[in-house]
Amino acid sequence: MTELLKSLRTWPWHIVAPVLLFVAVAVLAPWLTPYDPAAQDYMSILQGPSWAHWLGTDYLGRDLLSRIIGGARVSLTAMSIVLLAALILGVVVGSLAGYIGGRFEVVMISAIDIFLALPSLVIALALIGIMGPGYWSMIVALTLAWWANYARMSRAVVVAELRQPYIEAARIMGANHLHIFSRHILPSVLALVVVYASADAGALVLAIATLSFLGLGVEPPTPEWGQMLVDGMGYLEDNPALVILPGLALTLVVVSFNLLGEAFALSKVPRPARGLTLSRRRRDRAKEEAARAQVEARP
Amino acid sequence: MSTASGPIYEVGDLVIDLYAGNVSVRAVDGVSFAIHPGETVAIVGESGSGKTVMTLGPLGLLPEGVTVDIRGRAQSGGQDLLTLGPRRLSELRGRSFGVVFQDPISALNPMKRVGPQLAAQARRLTGATGREARQAALDLLKRTGIPDPDDRYFRYPHEMSGGMLQRVMIALALAGKPKVLIADEPTTALDATVQAQILELIRQLQREDGIAVLLITHDIGVVSRVADRVIVLYAGRIAEEGPAFEVLTAPIHPYTIGLLDSVPDLRKSIGEPRQGIPGVPPDQSMLVPGCRFAERCPKVEPRCRTHRPPLDQVRGRAVVQRVACPPQLRALREMADA
Predict the structure, then answer these.
(1) Nearest to B119 by CA among B175, B164, B165, B76
(2) Domain identity same for B47 and B10
(3) Which of A262, B146, B198, B249 is the least buried, fewest Cβ under 10 Å from its Cβ?
(4) Is B296 within the bounds of a domain?
């Protein structure tokens, strides 16, 4: 626990902040939205920014700000469910394949390869075609389109870890499979997979928006950024903000998740001290040195 | 040995600070030493005592992922290494300084045959053309005692044994005809029998070319076998320095005494507990006054904790031996007076 606190202090907060902001907005959405995102108001259609509607309204008179905030909540929820499901499915299948080995592994690897060979959006589209459009079919489709990468990674880590001498040592000391897997192998698998997932979250938000853009994902009137883009396209000349702002929100979220993933990956590598930290450390060192010299100079 | 001429590599008041993540480490804290042509100097110390950083730091070979502050002097051939840019340093490495690393398997490119790797080095360092470089590489393989060099030339690193690869590493280090050979624990990864062969090879090459050898090691056996002079390093400072024979048979600094006592002795019976030095090496992230060894020292005096012990010469000995321990030196003088 103290370890965790210590690592929190050295966290690159400036990189984590955008993601935290997005999460905070999504969680607090019901309190932040000035209007019901789905409420229509035919008295104020396609308005520009005003005190009543800070970012204006769309063709049904719905408040744009409320819809963007509400969209964050919808995107984050869908993304979290898909990511968690894909991660669990991928880690379980991949680890089993790697740990059991033999013919089972060959079959599983082939299945994973088939999923990886097809673009994930194509898989998702095909599955939605079978299940019919809708929120939950989008979730299921995206999960099945997304798990293969995690499965492949997990299997690779498990196979590499199994060869480590400490696994052999654990086995010699009588540890059973469950213990070896959960205590010695799973932590390394998760360490890699979670880092990948943090960067993958952005791509997933984008995929959700894409499906909704095509009318296959989140159904109206639930606010969703991809859907807002379609809705706004027809009124591009009247109110370009209807397209620009949801697009901007989407871009910022994807970029901030990518930065988070990058920061995660880099935090594993030792970094030289730089900039302000470095000059502070040098100052501290010089002070220590002066203090030491003073003590040692006494007769 | 021609110690009459000036030193070929000289380091003075060297201070090296490392800054990484959230730690600052004073890896080297005011160290001076010199090595003359034809001489073998062993640098002894435990892991983390600063052996490698002190020797390779001035040449720009430093650990990855840290910011390095380096102060003091480091001279070779009339040049101050600390003022040279990375490009000039790179020219010196290989030409003036050859380096042999601990693990030859990871120091050689596994995807390239050893001969061409060696030839490429010869081409870079001596400006030899294709055929000359190849001949030079073959000669180097022959000189380092590799049997059937014509065949080994086309072998990949994984096809050769650790001892053979270490010979290839030595050949690589010698390709630029350096004046100083720095061997960083060259025998740690090798079998005991192969160790002896590699040490003998280094000795022989040194006799032939008159190069200086800086041997970084924590193996006292290796030191006694090849070194002319020994520098004992403790927590980034020199504890004791002198001719190998004197330091190994009549050590003065309590740390050297403890270090030698902890070498297993075959003459003692198995039941006898092994000697060791109580405690652990100090935390080098803080600068504290006094002797770094004071916490573990059996001869510690109050002054040891407040004043840095100067590296003083031992009087009354025919050789130059320097020890950073005033209490011990005083005891020695009193004994001589009595």
Answers:
(1) B175
(2) yes
(3) B249
(4) no
Say whether pTM exceeds 0.90: no
Distance from CA of B72 to the nearest CA of A (A): 15
DSSP bridge pairs for B29: B15
Query: How many domains does the structure of chain B reveal?
Result: 2
CB-nearest to A289 from B19, B20, B287 is B287
Q: Is A282 within 8 Å of chain B by CB?
A: yes
Contact assessment for residue B40 and residue B229, using Cβ atoms and an 8 Å cutoff: yes
Q: By residue range, what is the domain housing residue B10?
A: 1-96+178-266+274-280
In a domain, B115, yes or no: yes
Nearest residue in A to B15, CA atom: A289
Q: Domain boundary residue among B177, B206, B231?
A: B177
By the CB < 8 Å criterion, does B67 face chain A?
yes
Is CATH 1.20.950.20 what the domain over A20-47+55-268 is classified as, yes or no? no
Q: What are phi and psi of B313, to 5 degrees?
A: -75, 145
Our CA-based measurement puts residue B106 at a distance from the nearest CA of chain A, in whole angstroms, of 19
Q: How do residues A73-129 score in pLDDT, each as one tens digit? A: 888 889 999 999 999 999 999 999 999 888 999 999 999 999 889 888 888 888 888
Among chain A residues, the shortest Cα distance to B30 is held by A289
B260 and B187 together in one domain: yes
Distance (Å) from the alpha carbon of A189 to chain B's nearest alpha carbon = 25
**pLDDT tens readout for residues A122-166:** 888 888 889 888 888 889 999 988 899 999 999 999 999 988 889
Q: Chain A neighbours among B 291-320 (CB < 8 Å)?
A: 306-308
Contact B26 A285 (CB under 8 A): yes
User: What residues of chain A lie within 8 A of the CB of B285, using their CB?
Assistant: none
Q: State the pairing for strand pair B180-184/B97-100.
A: parallel
A54 phi/psi in degrees, rounded to 5: -55, -40
B257 lies in the same domain as B150: no
Q: Does B24 contact A274 at a Cβ distance shorter than 8 Å?
A: no
State the pLDDT at residue A8.
61
